[in-house]
Amino acid sequence: MQTLNQALFIFFAVLAVASAILMVTRRNIVHGAVFLITTLLSTAGIFLLLEAEFLFIVQVILYVGGIMVLFVFVIMLVNLDVSMRQVQFNRQWFVAGALSLVLAAQFLFAIWAGRGALRLPAMATEISPKNTEAVADALFSHYMLPFEIASILLLVAMIGAVVMAKRRVE
After folding, report:
1. Which of 14-18, 98-102, 104-108, 155-159 has the lowest mean pLDDT?
2. Can you give the pTM of this predicted structure?
3. What CA–CA distance (Å, rounded) separates 55 from 74?
């Protein structure tokens, strides 16, 4: 069973990294959105392997089901012909490459400098099957007010997006 979990983890991890790379390298924005959906679904698969069912469901419903639908609507509302004719900044490969090397060097230095602090505790041998209950209990007891405020803000943002899209269509 352990080897099956490892094989599935490697599969989802490789799929997530490959689709993330393909997402940022595609010229067609619709293809990029499809690869973003693939990345989010493979991340949800990793959450499921880690027995974090709540995060799995949130990832699928909220991000893949909700946010990506909004992304696709925005892609369809934007006039792609106009955006393709605008001036592109893809002639600056040298600057982007140099900045990427500087960022990679800083990242490697930070890992090297903090190598003593990267010792992680041993993994828990038993994961509670009631992790979703624990999240729900904390969410609806201690964090009820912030949860409701966030839901109202999301509702207002969704109504605002519909109103803005309706103005554009008319």
Report:
1. 155-159
2. 0.59
3. 26
Domain boundary among 39, 56, 80: 80
CA distance 154 to 51: 28
Angstrom distance (rounded) from CA 98 to CA 113: 22
Q: By residue range, what is the domain housing residue 70?
A: 1-80
Residues 59, 42: Cα–Cα separation, whole Å: 10
Give the number of domains in the chain.
Answer: 2
The answer to whether residues 75 and 30 touch, using CB atoms and an 8 Å cutoff, is yes
* Phi (first) and psi of residue 47, to 5 degrees: -60, -40
Pair of tokens at residue 38 = 């693939």
pLDDT band at 39 (very low <50, low <70, confident <90, very high): very high
Mean pLDDT, rounded, for 127-156: 78
Q: Examine residue 95 and state whether it is found in any structural domain, yes or no.
A: no
Q: Residue 68 belongs to a domain with what CATH number? A: 1.20.120.1200
Q: CB burial class (10 A; 0-12, 13-18, 19+) of residue 36?
A: buried
- Do 72 and 140 reside in the same domain of the chain? no
